From TrEMBL:
Catalyzes the oxidative decarboxylation of 6-phosphogluconate to ribulose 5-phosphate and CO(2), with concomitant reduction of NADP to NADPH. Homodimer. Substrate binds at residues 104, 130-132, 187-188, 192, 262, 289, 447, 453. The active site is at 184 (proton acceptor), 191 (proton donor). The keyword NADP applies. Its EC number is 1.1.1.44. This is 6-phosphogluconate dehydrogenase, decarboxylating. It holds the Pfam family NAD_binding_2. Belongs to the 6-phosphogluconate dehydrogenase family. It is an enzyme of class 1 (oxidoreductase). InterPro entries: 6-PGluconate_DH-like_C_sf, 6PGD_dom2, 6PGDH_C, 6PGDH_Gnd/GntZ, 6PGDH_NADP-bd, NAD(P)-bd_dom_sf, Pgluconate_DH.
Amino acid sequence: MDTNKFDFGMVGLGVMGRNFLLNVADHGFSALGLDLDAEKAKALDEEGAGRTVKGTTSTEEFVAGLKTPRRIMLLVPAGKVVDSVINSLLPHLDQGDMIIDGGNSHFPDTERRNKELQEKGFYFVGAGVSGGAEGARRGPSIMPGGNPKAYEHIRPVLEAVAAKVNGEPCVAHMGRGAAGHYVKMVHNGIEYGLMQLIAEAYDLLKKLGGLTNEELHRTFARWNEGRLQSFLIEITAAIFAQKDDLTDGDLVDGILDKAKQKGTGKWTSQNAMDLGIPIPTIDAAVTMRGLSALKDERSRAAAHYPSDRKIKSVEKGTIVSEVEQALYFAFIITYAQGLSLLDDASKEHDYGCDMEAIARIWRGGCIIRAALLEDIRKVYRAQPDLTNMLLSNEFKDELAATEEATRSVLKKAIDAGIPTLTLSSTLNYFDAYRSERLPLNLVQAQRDFFGSHTYERLDREGIFHTEWGS
Ligand SMILES: NC(=O)C1=CN([C@@H]2O[C@H](COP(=O)(O)OP(=O)(O)OC[C@H]3O[C@@H](n4cnc5c(N)ncnc54)[C@H](OP(=O)(O)O)[C@@H]3O)[C@@H](O)[C@H]2O)C=CC1
Ligand SMILES: O=C(CO)[C@H](O)[C@H](O)COP(=O)(O)O
């Protein structure tokens, strides 16, 4: 009865939705798209020519055109739009239909929508999608969570369209409730951390080593052939080679140094704070976006505190080698921080996340894909209950081997007055994490001194309070 109807529906035919839907159609599923903008619906018809793809601006036509139980994905801006789209669809849907929110929704919203839709007899899947336009078109990494029965129903489509690494699709059920959007949020937090580390590496290479854009291009391209191999290193190499259409210079030099943010990095830091899980690399990266946005104030501060600090140049080979080691050291620790947050959140929210599956599906399609994730996957396959991958033997030797270069480059950065908030936070996290004794005994004493907050002792059990100074 449904034979002339479409297999899969998409609401939102912008950058992600249009490309994702064309990808669905490439894999033999008929695909119907809805957007309020007639131009976008028409563009889908044109781009989808030769495949079973159609765009519409009518919600009624869209819903009526889909096979039941319906599989409807939303790729619309996160926030109120998602609720508004769901509310516009609901009166037309049948029990058992499924809505998949593929945008970057905040996980508490997903939790709420999950409950509300389940109570009304519909399935809801909060699914993180990563890979940008190209990923959506050719194979993203997909992080669906929620009811496992719902996942089984969309699994064939998602496995077909997802990126593949060694034949394995970069999609898996992430866990119960809002697990999919939680995992995507942390993915983006790691993304912020890695991007800022790369930006600091660029600053160090340029200011300490005097590398030109051409040399930066070649350096990053070479790094991408080695252990730093990753999407972000690859695109960074390409960025340094990009000429500016509007001037004779290189495009990177003409771009305003104010980084925007949509909120996923900040949410990661906020939730990590709520759970008490330290992720200082990601926190520092979010802070640096904030600092970058204060461009006018920074200009005033630069005039207020002029620096006559001489930058002692470093031989190019030395700085390139040290920065490569520091980046590798920091990449490992950034993934470790993000995954330790996920491990804790999974327990706290009862998501039931499989850490190996997360590392596996991040190996391809997404923005943080990297060769390193294969090693991380192996760690969690061998020790699924590890709270922090730094406790495994896998990275012990590599961290030991790259630690000295990280210290060396940071000393030079401090001497030269080059900001390295993210890289130095990463090293400090490592130093603190492996310190059996931290000076926080003094903080406990201070808390007890001014607020009778009590303390525990090293030498005996119990809770103590002292009348300090008496
Ligand atoms: N761009 C990226 O690289 C990535 C984005 N994401 C996430 O995916 C989601 C979509 O992002 P993206 O594709 O970039 O955003 P776009 O703004 O490019 O596309 C969103 C589309 O949704 C349409 N839309 C808005 N409201 C409605 C509605 N009520 N009914 C139907 N269509 C509607 C918009 O139309 P109109 O413009 O006319 O309002 C637009 O075509 C976001 O949550 C984003 O954070 C996730 C990973 C990567
Ligand atoms: O989800 C993504 C990739 O995985 C998006 O590209 C992300 O929204 C970019 O975030 P921001 O605008 O905050 O830098």
